[in-house]
């Protein structure tokens, strides 16, 4: 048995597809007065649909670090290529939605939740490149649309 409390900064919610589960997680953190923040991983069309339909209260957003997009799983769910127009459009939508909510957006096609160093590297890298990622996606989507 552990004598010490385990300390952590984030709680990862993989394959977010239910607004109910997300709201329960936020309410749990609020009632416990927890300082940890949620990282929401969007890996499916249903997850994309659900996350963009939630009306977040300002106090709820204090418990969310950001949105990760599991691009490999998303493209597999949509039965298309990872660089397809629809996947890029969803990434753009989620990047803009995260910016609107003032939370982080991370496109992490190589994300491995079981590799702690990889998680840390991905978080650190994308916290500093959110604007660049959104602009790249927008530019690529615009080029695809013009073609």
TrEMBL record:
- Record keyword Metal-binding present: yes
* Keywords linked to the UniProt accession: Metal-binding
For whether the record's keyword set contains Metal-binding, the answer is yes
Against InterPro entries, the record matches this protein to:
Aldolase/citrate-lyase_domain, Pyrv/PenolPyrv_kinase-like_dom, Pyrv_kinase-like_dom_sf
GO MF annotation list: catalytic activity; metal ion binding
* Span of domain HpcH/HpaI aldolase/citrate lyase: 6-121
Q: Write the protein's name.
A: HpcH/HpaI aldolase/citrate lyase domain-containing protein
